[in-house]
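Hi R.,

As promised on Friday, here is the backbone we talked about, encoded as structure tokens. Could you run it through your design pipeline when you get a chance and send me back a sequence?
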């Protein structure tokens, strides 16, 4: 068995003559690259600041101890990490003459991006489940969504994300690169890598769509069904109860649409490229993690009040 594994690794190394890739980036125009550097840098710093404020506020506040904010803590953490997988390199490459990334760094970026992206999907599902129990099963809420249960659900989300990302890496490692090493993108992902492989990538692309695409579509449909059930059950609540529930669910639904729209666009289609792919990827990896904290703070009075008290006391 060890001999077979060693032989397979040796064959892959001999067939793979590429040790680094060249990232084309968003544009080749020097002036536009300077603008991209400034814009992406500001967006990235705002993303880190916004998610950092939410993480610290939830961790230090005595009033944000419900399961909804427990999950929001991990969503903000996943947002910050997800943005960090691509934004720093895009910022540096915007002012660099040599936009190269090593083979190992490229594979690491693929793993990290899929890990934190999948983590965000699972946390959004947990947040929808929390709202479903709170609105449709209020008498059983404290029992079903206990602290222990919430902790187990988050652990399962981490494990599921790791399994998903680990399934992507073998597919990427099996790709032999023996020709061009120029990636027409600003980051490493399986879709642009498939175009450079010296083999028929139909099966691997099918696996990609089955894995990432299925997770996106099934999760999105599951979330839509949960919100339909929640809206249907609100007919029996008071006017004030409906208003509060709708306010919370609206924030969640906006985040779901903003995140899953680009995700479904990128991972549920044949291996073709479109001119808007890069901009969709920027919005997906940098724009959405920035908008999430804004949506949850601007539309949530409890978070705003807790943030105001926490930071005013610190200052």
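Update: got your reply. Pasting your designed sequence below so it's all in one thread:
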């Amino acid at each position: 068995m060890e001999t077979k594994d060693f032989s397979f690794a040796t064959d892959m190394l001999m067939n793979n003559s590429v040790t680094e890739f060249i990232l084309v980036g968003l544009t080749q125009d020097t002036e536009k690259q300077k603008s991209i550097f400034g814009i992406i840098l500001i967006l990235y710093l705002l993303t880190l600041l916004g998610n950092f404020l939410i993480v610290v506020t939830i961790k230090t506040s005595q009033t944000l101890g419900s399961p909804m904010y427990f999950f929001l803590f991990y969503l903000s953490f996943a947002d910050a990490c997800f943005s960090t997988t691509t934004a720093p390199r895009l910022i540096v490459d915007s002012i660099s003459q040599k936009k190269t990334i090593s083979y190992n760094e490229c594979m690491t970026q693929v793993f990290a991006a899929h890990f934190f992206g999948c983590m965000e999907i699972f946390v959004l599902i947990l947040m929808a489940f929390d709202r479903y129990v709170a609105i449709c099963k209020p008498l059983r809420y404290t029992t079903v969504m206990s602290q222990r249960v919430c902790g187990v659900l988050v652990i399962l989300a981490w494990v599921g994300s790791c399994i998903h990302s680990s399934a992507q890496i073998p597919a990427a490692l099996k790709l032999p690169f023996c020709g061009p090493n120029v990636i027409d993108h600003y980051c490493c992902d399986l879709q642009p890598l498939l175009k450079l492989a010296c083999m028929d990538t139909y099966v691997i692309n099918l696996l990609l769509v089955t894995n990432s695409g299925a997770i996106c579509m099934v999760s999105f449909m599951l979330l839509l069904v949960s919100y339909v059930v929640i809206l249907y059950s609100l007919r029996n609540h008071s006017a004030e109860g409906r208003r509060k529930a709708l306010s919370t669910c609206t924030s969640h639904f906006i985040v779901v649409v903003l995140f899953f729209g680009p995700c479904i666009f990128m991972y549920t289609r044949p291996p073709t490229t479109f001119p808007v792919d890069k901009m969709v990827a920027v919005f997906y990896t940098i724009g959405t993690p920035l908008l999430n904290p804004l949506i949850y703070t601007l539309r949530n009075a409890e978070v705003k009040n807790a943030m105001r008290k926490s930071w005013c006391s610190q200052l």
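One thing I noticed while checking it: Confidence is low (pLDDT under 50) at residues 1-14.

Thanks again,
M.
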